[in-house]
Amino acid sequence: MKRPLLLTLFMMVSLATFAQQQTANRPTLVAGIPVNYQEDSVGSYVLPELLKFADGKPVTTAKQWTQKRRPELLKLVEEIQFGKMPDRPKSLKFNAFDPGTPAFNGKAIRKQVTVYFTGDTSDHKMDLVIYLPSAVKKPVPLLMNISFVAYNQLIDDPGLRVGTIWTRDGKRAKADKPTPFGKMNVEQFLDAGIGFASVYYGSIEPDFKEGIRDGIRKTYLKASQTEPANDEWGAISAWAWGLSRAMDYFETDKQIDSKRIALQGASRLGKAVLWAGIHDTRYKVVVASISGEGGAALSRRNFGETVGHITDPSRYLYQFATNYHSYADKINTLPIDGHVLVALMAPRPLLLQTGSTDYWSDPKGEFLSAVAAAPVYRLFGETAPETTVMPAAEDTSLLMNHLGYFMHEGGHSVLPTDWTHIVAYLKKYL
């Protein structure tokens, strides 16, 4: 049993080193499927109509979108791509084992909270860490981050509980070893008057094919099931479901303004926060970093990773509804695409953050997805890309749009400089 080698593709990686690796290690054949990196070979395609109801009639108002067209598309995404997830469990409960401790030389108040998903408190639980700026005396906005590592590995704070993570061979281990990347600069959020929270994704559902045996999805299997039905949740929906349970806690904390919570995640967790924000409209803002195929990128563009690659049973089919794989060899019949995910966030703010050499994730496909979804944002009078010309790396001209887009110079990562832009975006929209 082998974990996906994702930890080398995340935050704070050296830009120069990663760019070199990106060029040298570009796969040309994955799961027996060729990979295209040439713009002249992406093929022709027609995207599914956003502003047209299933019966063919046009959508002309924001009200029509909200009341009828959005539910039509949401149902398709749920049943085909990510899978249906259960509601809030009746047995959900919280334990603030660290209810408020000064941190960062008094700049922050730190909280650590265990969220119990089931009545059995020995398993199926996640720990959240929350930092609130101590200088702010009223309820504060917050960025909720979902991470590939335990929060004690992410943040330099000796008061943090040492978490448990999943190893590459599918075993639990104490998160007491350094990781290949740097620490999160929490103080940049505090200085902006914004709180910061984080959760380790593996505490919700392990990230490997057999992870369902230990994850939250197992508890919802029917007596006759050994795995979810074809239209039921994959691991991405499980992670999104866990983020909704974090929101359930935020609504109980009087020091947090639960109406002003943003989500951020990278790579497969960029897909997870996008789906979480779509499904749970209590989240006000989403920052989907390098979400790629199955996220904001257009699947109909044959560039980099494809639905066939990502849903191959030997790779990541467990992350999606099984139905999704049935479109691997007939992508032009898929009734949704990445622009649908982007549009389903409307009218709430969404920032797509990508990298110029992240060819596998197709940064241009994410830009074109935003262009295609822009008319939905404009229905609500919100700003969105008005050009079909892709901005150059480090160009911030589209960054602060309600539907924003920013591409750094480099690969599949979230760089320290990206966080500067993300904080500016959050200050505007939170």
UniProtKB/TrEMBL annotation:
Database matches in InterPro entries:
AB_hydrolase_fold (IPR029058), GCE-like_dom (IPR054579)
Leader sequence range is 1-19
One MF term from GO for this chain?
Answer: carboxylic ester hydrolase activity
Q: Name one Pfam family in it.
A: GCE_fung
Where the record annotates domain 4-O-methyl-glucuronoyl methylesterase-like, the positions are 230-381
Q: Which Gene3D superfamilies match?
A: alpha/beta hydrolase
Q: Which UniProt keywords apply?
A: Hydrolase, Serine esterase, Signal
Question: Where does this protein have coiled-coil stretches?
Answer: none
Q: What is this protein called?
A: Acetylxylan esterase
Species per Swiss-Prot/TrEMBL record: Larkinella rosea
Recall the taxonomic lineage recorded for the source organism: Bacteria, Pseudomonadati, Bacteroidota, Cytophagia, Cytophagales
